[in-house]
């Protein structure tokens, strides 16, 4: 962006300064996230989250479509194993489960021959003896199965490394922020009683930003920044590189953008943002951010 009244050299110096400021913020995020990794709270959370299935891209999309605020999802039986019970009357989230079946086709292949005790059999010349085996060719079909989000269950407490932000913000400033968000996205901010762990979500199908009601002013504003970043960076209708990123990278990008915007307004969200990013990063926070630095910088500047 060129600034009127300044020379080309001055504009270039301004852009360079802003680039360096953004990279410095990225380093601060990276350092903050890495410090979270060593905390007892985060280790406890990792042990819990490791018990959950990594769903395919298609099933992840089905889950997000059916329940955009979903966080931890598992089958009915899995929740029982984890000491939680699905609440009565809760509707499951439909996904596709693979089922193997045998066909009428057979496939022959050779394998080393073994005796009845499982010992390798050798020929007289000392080479391995081989045998021909014929087996059914198996296929894979898919059937509808159901999973449930943690918000649909009761029982043993869930480890939570992220604590909700506290603090009040002037109501006039809050309204000015919401008005600005509506102006840049064309989307209204709606408040709902979200039952799960999610603080809010952006629904690209209905083009809505939903924020959990009843939160502190600081947490609400931070969440609005986060979901606006999703709208600007991850709307599938937008032709932007970040729209096709994996979900974990999208969350790192959105929360980093929210942190940067909040920082600009003098709101420190590090106690929430760093642990949140840690739950989504694969240990390469800075690398994930730097490869889309321009996109994040543009989104943060727009907000």
Q: What can you tell me about this protein's structure?
A:
- With 303 residues, this protein is α+β, with helices and mostly antiparallel strands.
- It is built from ten helices and eight strands.
- The chain has helices at residues 8-37, 40-49, 57-66, 76-81, 171-185, 217-234, 247-264, 270-280, 285-290, 293-302; strands at residues 73-74, 84-86, 93-112, 130-149, 153-155, 189-192, 200-203, 208-212.
- It has a three-stranded antiparallel beta sheet with strand order 1-4-3. A three-stranded mixed beta sheet has the order 6-8-7.
- The longest helix has 30 residues, at 8-37.
- The radius of gyration is 26 Å and the shape is globular.
Tell me the helix content.
Answer: 40-55%
Q: What is the typical, i.e. mean, pLDDT?
A: 85
Order of helices and strands: HHHEHEEEEHEEEHHHHH
Secondary structure category: alpha+beta
Walk across the major sheet and give the strand order.
1-4-3
- Proportion of beta-strand residues: 15-25%
The number of E-state strands comes to 8
Q: Which runs of at least 5 residues are low in confidence (pLDDT < 50)?
A: none
* Distance separating the two termini: 16 Å
Estimated radius of gyration: 26 Å
**Subunit organisation of the chains:** single chain
Individual helix count: 10
The main pleated sheet reads as: 3 strands, antiparallel
Report the principal-axis shape: globular
């Amino acid at each position: 962006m060129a600034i009127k009244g300044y020379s080309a050299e001055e504009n270039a110096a301004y852009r360079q300064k802003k680039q360096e400021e953004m990279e410095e913020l990225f380093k601060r995020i990276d350092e903050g996230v890495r410090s979270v990794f060593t905390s007892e709270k985060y280790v406890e959370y990792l042990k819990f989250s490791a018990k959950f299935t990594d769903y395919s891209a298609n099933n992840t999309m089905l889950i997000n479509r059916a329940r955009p605020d979903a966080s931890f999802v598992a089958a009915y039986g899995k929740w029982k194993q984890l000491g939680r019970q699905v609440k009565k009357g809760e509707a499951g989230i439909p996904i596709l489960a693979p089922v193997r079946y045998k066909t009428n086709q057979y496939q022959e292949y050779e394998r080393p021959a073994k005796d009845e005790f499982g010992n390798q059999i050798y020929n007289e010349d000392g080479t391995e003896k081989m045998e021909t085996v014929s087996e059914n060719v198996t296929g894979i079909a898919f059937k509808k199965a159901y999973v449930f989000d943690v918000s649909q269950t009761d029982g043993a407490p869930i480890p939570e490394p992220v604590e909700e932000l506290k603090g009040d913000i002037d109501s006039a400033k809050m309204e000015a922020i919401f008005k600005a968000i509506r102006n840049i996205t064309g989307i209204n901010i709606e408040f709902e009683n979200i039952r799960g762990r999610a603080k809010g979500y952006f629904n690209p199908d209905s083009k809505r930003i939903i924020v959990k009601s009843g939160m502190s002013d600081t947490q609400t504003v931070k969440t609005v920044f986060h979901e606006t970043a999703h709208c600007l960076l991850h709307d599938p209708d937008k032709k932007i590189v970040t729209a096709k990123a994996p979900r974990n990278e999208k969350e790192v990008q959105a929360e980093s953008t929210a942190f940067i915007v909040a920082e600009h307004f003098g709101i420190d969200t590090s106690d929430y943002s760093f642990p949140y990013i840690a739950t989504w990063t694969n240990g390469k926070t800075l690398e994930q951010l730097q490869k889309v630095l321009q996109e994040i910088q543009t989104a943060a500047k727009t907000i």
